[in-house]
Predict the structure of ABC transporter substrate-binding protein.
Amino acid sequence: MFKRIRRLRQVAAIASITSLVAGCGVLSSDSSEEQGPIIVGTTAAPSTLDPAAAWDSSWELFRNIYQTLLSYPSGASAPEPDAAEECRFTDGSNKKYQCELREGLKFSDGHALNAQAVKHSIDRIRKINVNGGPAGLLGSLDRVQVLNDREVVFHLNKADATFPFVLATPAMSIVDPEEYPAGKLREESSIVGSGPYNLQSYDEGKQAELVKNDTYNGYAERKNAAVTIRYFQDSPTMVGALRDKELDVAFRGLNADDIVELQADDKDELQITEGFGTEINYLVFNPKDPTAGKTAVRKAIAQIVDRPAIAHKVYKDTVEPLYSMVPKGLTGHTTGFFDDFGDPSKAKARKILTEAGISTPVSLTLWYTSDRYGSSTKAEFEELKRQLEKSGLFQITLKSRPWKTYVSGYQKGEYPVFGRGWFPDFPDADNFIAPFVGDQNALGTPYVSPKITETLLPSSRAQSDRANVVKDFEEAQRILVDDARLLPLWQGRQYVAASTEISGSERALDPSTIMMVGELYRKTSW
């Protein structure tokens, strides 16, 4: 019968893993190079190959090809050294963070990876300052100091206990100063990195061929010699390729129908791994739009949206309703949107609009991406349109674009309301609030909230013990609910579908649910 692995990570950081698949003997993790590369399918193609430009699922590729000072060995719940030999705060105020690099690090082109390269990599993120790019992660960084070839110090302008988590994100990938200009993005369709794999070839939007980097010096074990990542436009096509044995693994973008069908499959050829997820899905309202910029319009939508219906009808209960930007399982999670708005109510929504003097029906355009989060996205937005129009209070137009042009559109402020998904940079409530507020954020849509950015986040970041930050995050989420600029919809689980010939999928996702493809291998004996 169909084999199903259930993989649970307890988050504060997503730690232990439980497998429900009964083994049939001892498996060897030796790769069989004669069988060719492991083929992984996903719907999340990179938007760029330059880490200085990406705050999205381009990180999936970066994690496996570039190297960061810190990263997450399989099963780790906190960052551990990768390119670094050791990192630590050297003061009592969480404002000076020092790292010592491993000896003899090299980029794939043979150039030395040293402390100067680390400084160059971090500095160029801020200098290039791509709109919606990762510079927003470095808000607490004052300057980077090179002590010698192997030692670098990060001087922070305020206490930030989350800074090691920031350094562990693929956005902080270390790049070769001779290949990646200080003041502009690299345009070549290739990567010069020092990670577990080298990028042998890349066909944008179609596939990336990875081969083991023999000069890699870090924590990662590579249980295969090569991996090819194929990029798909939708889940059915990807799952069809998996069933036809054109893929070994399918991940990121599996839609609900395919997941349910895979779970119920009676064949002995495929397995599915289910993991606790901190992925969230939400709506963003543009404050400069004449309609979406009105608080009453946003709160009326919050009062109408039926999250359980979306989770059940569209996603077949493979996701769960979310009433806070901070997902369940993380310290600081609340249910603020349910506390304020309760169950969907047309009468309450009408009252909100009437008291604000807004006539109905309110005309509004909702945008979504057609190829990033899986083919269920279209059905989700059709359900949102149905719910809002059924109330008689809204007239909704739906529009979509492929991810690359979609990103450009919302960064330019073209959309009144648009959908986004968020895969965490690191497993902490800070990462579900800080990226979305401030003049410079991951959405390219400024959200000025001085109380959050100048008081609550700095207060929480001064606490090394994250159990002590609950009150700060509860207050921050109260502000998010009152503003209703961001409307959380659902929290996802993680699913990896694979051939039964493949092992390692239950260990392949790090705490931010990025796949470390080196954990995948073919079973060579029973």
